[in-house]
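Posting here for the record, re: adenosine-5'-tetraphosphate.
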Amino acid sequence: MIGDKKILYSGMQATGNLTLGNYLGALKNWITLSDEYECFYGVMDLHSLTVRQNPAEFRKRARMLYTLYVAAGLDPEKNCVYFQSHVSSHAELGWLLNCFTYMGELSRMTQFKDKSAKHADNINAGLFTYPVLMAADILLYQADVVPVGADQMQHLEITRDIATRFNNIYGDVFTIPEAYIGKSGARIMSLQEPTKKMSKSDENVNASIYLLDDPDTIIRKFKRAVTDSDNEIRYSEDKPGIRNLIDIYGATTGKSKEEIEKEFDGKGYGEFKLAVGESVVDILKPLQERMKELEADKSYIDSVIKANDEKAQYFSMKTLRKVQKKLGLTERIR
Ligand code: AQP
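Prediction output follows.
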């Protein structure tokens, strides 16, 4: 708790340009949480390094991710929005927690199995110990809640296991985080392979809508979205493409599946795809305009980065010092 508010932790990796999936599934909901929670949101740039990055592009992309958080409406005065790599306690606690995590537990992580299959030429130790760094991210801020998608649930569970193991030996050091059960965001699927989630690192640019895509590109990508050929707008397991478009339209307009089916009853896919595309153009417009303003005001973003890095450092350091003391590491001479 900070004051009378519970603490919430989340973040995104700077592994690609943010997609509509990242926005509707996470970012849009984060914006509503700061009244109720004390929120910490990281640009998880250390995590991004498990995959090889081009340094110049990576630097730009991480800053762009930060600016997008703000452009989307995350108020950097109310939320602590910061770069993971600027706060050295993440890497430090990550190491310490490595010594409280078992190889067997890490070997069971499905994301490790998936990612090592995808990057078979670079199965580095960071990919394997990724969940430990994630545990450090969350535990450093004594987070009470973590909004997680189903694919991250296993990582939250290992975080709880590591924290409980540590607390059982050294006393009440870490808050045991819970999954945030709130209004869950839609899970948005790829426009080209609608049984696969929309991902910022997908190599096919037509599979994802990027938050900074211009209106023509957005409409074109929706027109090309892969669907079945029966031309009936119905929400059904066996129609993944149309189901995904209904989910997107529902998320952008607030309409229910039934309302959408009714609205497009007897209409063709062409008309529906155009309506979905236009609704996405509409919700992204204010974000894109704000992004332009922020990109033109470098000193403002610099100043919020500095203030928020300091805030993150302050809170995380309190936990790190406590852990170091519990472990018996020699105290600093002041
Ligand atoms: N398609 C999606 N639908 C709904 N939510 C999504 N998220 C990601 N894709 C979708 C949510 O966005 C946040 C981003 O988390 P991340 O950057 O740690 O990585 P991720 O979940 O692996 O996202 P990506 O876009 O698929 O990245 P890459 O391509 O690098 O693996 C999370 O809250 C996630 O639930």
